Amino acid sequence: MKCCGRFRHAEKLTKSQRKNKMIVVPEKVIPNLIDRHVAFNAVEKVFAAMSNGEACNFPVIREDIGYADALYGFKSGFDKAGMALGLKSGGYWPGNEARGLSNHQSTVFLFDADTGQVKAMVGGNYLTAVRTAAASSVSIKHLARENSKVLGMIGAGHQSVFQLRSAVEQRNFERIIGWNYHPEMLSRLEDVCAEIGLAFESVTLDELGAQADVIISITSSFAPILKAAQVKAGTHLACMGTDTKGKQEVEAELIADATLFTDQIAQAITIGECQHAIADGSLTEDRITEIGAVINGTHSGRTSADEITLFDGTGVGLQDLAVATAAVELALKSGDAIEFDF
Ligand code: NAD
Prior knowledge:
By secondary structure, the chain is of the alpha/beta class. Helices cover 31% and strands 27% of the residues. It contains 11 helices and 19 strands. Strands 1, 2, 3, 4, 5, 6, 7, 8 and 19 form a 9-stranded mixed β-sheet that branches. The protein has an 8-stranded parallel β-sheet with strand order 11-10-9-12-14-18-16-17, with helices on both faces. α2 crosses α3 and α3 (125-143) packs parallel to α4 (158-167). Bound molecules: nicotinamide-adenine-dinucleotide.
């Protein structure tokens, strides 16, 4: 879309002129607008608002469209504290890579909560990665032991580098260790470690569980990878890959043994890592706490150095709206937003 005639750079308009205007923030400008700090703050704030009852996610829709093997759906919600109303639309197109596109595709739409008018359309692919990394990072900030030194990464796909970069900002990690189902992909993590000046080692799962103080899992696995017996006391786990019915990264026994936190309980027990322990009867949902309660100080979080804490990060629509709202604000300031009559 060119900025000419009807399409104007948004920063030239005042707030009242912006009525009936549609703002577009293209995917390509977003990496330069949203840094990890902005994403972290937006996600931490919206988790807190969810816990206060000021923000609510609406039921998720995810359907097999019966074409191109695609899964398509919506995640939506309203955050009254941040005045963010909208949805993320998108899904998974497995044939995309052959076309030079990312298999995951998403776009965020924001609406005016006073009028229902559409306000903005924001590229959602990069935002998905940074808001997911921000979620595990928020969990590390609030739940990992302060003296955590070793970070264990399970998974080396697209999301993993975002997770790694964000996690290392939360504790003084001295070493990163990693395991992946496809070991050749671990070079991705090794490259990031070299860039940020941290030692990286590829390890077995036994070694990973025995050494890591914090573990992030971010895979598309449908069977448990990490076993309860492999994890040492005091570990914090952020299980981020399981966001669909049937996926699983850790043994249900590990869930049953840990002190459990999540972004949203309704999602954790249906599409998150907790779904399996709920299904086999070893877990009841009253044992799961939403992380917003820890952020707000209404739950004490970790209570001992020996406790295993586990954050089941399922990914909620409000995270997407929070970072998309930040992207719109920053794009208006930088002149990267495109605005037109609608
Ligand atoms: P990707 O396709 O780039 O990487 C997939 C990862 O899973 C790789 O590490 C791969 O080696 C591993 N893997 C593939 N098959 C496996 C198997 N059978 N057993 C174990 N590991 C296997 O994907 P990505 O974009 O990095 O996403 C990873 C996961 O995170 C996906 O499941 C995705 O749906 C999920 N995700 C979750 C959120 C959230 O908010 N929780 C957000 C985005 C993505």
